[in-house]
């Protein structure tokens, strides 16, 4: 018997795997799922951080498990998919591919090693998560996927080339999977926020960190907890996109309504800023 279908909510009492669950949006997803009665495998490259999230969940009276995993490593994600089922003693019903890193800088100043670093985590990490969980969902007869992209996937801001490209790939992957997997009762949501207070700026390789830290503090318009709750609610409503902030929505509408004009506006704005 299916745990959820058209009338059921995949975030309720989910058996979930969350990558990058040691902090930020990932931790907020894990905690919100626990509040909804779920069991959560908290995966992170920093095992101590994942264990902290597990402790917070256990304080809520829910079950959680910490697993160390580098999502850029396919073998580790394959092991995570198998280990999660063993730990929870139940098939996984929801995977949240959240782990990500930040990278910025002028295109011609970035190395190919920089590109590989960000692509391994931001793009391949999501591909790995989908690759190893989708067959399990098909076998189970249902499932749900949340892929964390970014408004960068469509805003195409200058000096964020590699980051933009990887997040655009995550959005395209999510859109494709949504169409392809619907007949298998596998729901997909892609999260596309702008600034959210997390550690991605602190731990990333980005220019103007002082300015970005100020923007995160004063212009984020939301919190990771609100983003996680909204995304899970939209998944429950079978909505493909979660665009949580007003600025993210504005850029989305501008890009869709007048893509050529938007590109010219972006280029001219950048030229006058330099």
From TrEMBL:
KW Oxidoreductase (keyword) present: yes
Entry similarity comment: Belongs to the short-chain dehydrogenases/reductases (SDR) family.
UniProt cross-references to InterPro entries, sorted A to Z: NAD(P)-bd_dom_sf, Sc_DH/Rdtase_CS, SDR_fam
UniProt-listed Pfam families: adh_short (PF00106)
The protein's GO terms of the molecular function aspect are: oxidoreductase activity
Oxidoreductase recorded as keyword: yes
Q: Where does the record place a coiled coil?
A: none
- Which Gene Ontology CC terms are recorded? membrane
Per its record, how is this protein called by name?
Uncharacterized protein
Q: Which UniProt keywords apply?
A: Oxidoreductase
The record's annotation in PANTHER family points to: DEHYDROGENASE/REDUCTASE SDR FAMILY MEMBER 7B (PTHR44196), DEHYDROGENASE_REDUCTASE SDR FAMILY MEMBER 7B (PTHR44196:SF1)
Which species is listed as the source?
Acinetobacter tjernbergiae DSM 14971 = CIP 107465
């Amino acid at each position: 018997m299916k745990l959820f279908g058209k009338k059921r909510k995949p975030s309720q009492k989910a058996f979930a795997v969350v990558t990058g669950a040691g902090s930020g949006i990932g931790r907020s997803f894990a905690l919100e799922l626990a509040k909804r009665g779920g069991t959560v495998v908290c995966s992170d490259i920093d095992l101590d951080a994942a264990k902290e999230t597990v402790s917070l969940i256990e304080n809520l009276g829910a079950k959680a498990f910490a697993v160390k995993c580098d999502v850029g490593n396919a073998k580790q994600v394959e092991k995570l998919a198998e280990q999660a089922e063993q730990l929870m003693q139940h098939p996984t019903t929801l995977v949240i591919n959240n782990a990500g890193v930040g990278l910025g800088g002028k295109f011609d100043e970035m190395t190919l090693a920089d590109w590989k670093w960000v692509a391994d985590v931001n793009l391949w990490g999501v591909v790995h998560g989908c690759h190893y969980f989708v067959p399990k969902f098909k076998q189970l007869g249902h499932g749900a996927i949340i892929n964390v992209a970014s408004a960068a996937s469509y805003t195409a801001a200058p000096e964020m080339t590699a980051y933009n490209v990887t997040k655009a790939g995550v959005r395209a992957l999510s859109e494709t999977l949504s169409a392809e997997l619907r007949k298998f009762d596998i729901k997909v949501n892609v999260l596309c926020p702008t600034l959210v207070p997390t550690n991605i700026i602190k731990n990333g390789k980005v220019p103007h960190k002082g300015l970005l830290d100020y923007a995160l503090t004063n212009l984020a318009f939301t919190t990771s907890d609100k983003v996680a709750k909204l995304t899970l609610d939209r998944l429950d409503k079978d909505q493909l996109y979660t665009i949580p902030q007003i600025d993210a929505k504005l850029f989305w509408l501008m890009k869709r309504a007048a893509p050529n004009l938007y590109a010219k506006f972006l280029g001219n704005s950048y030229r006058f800023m330099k």
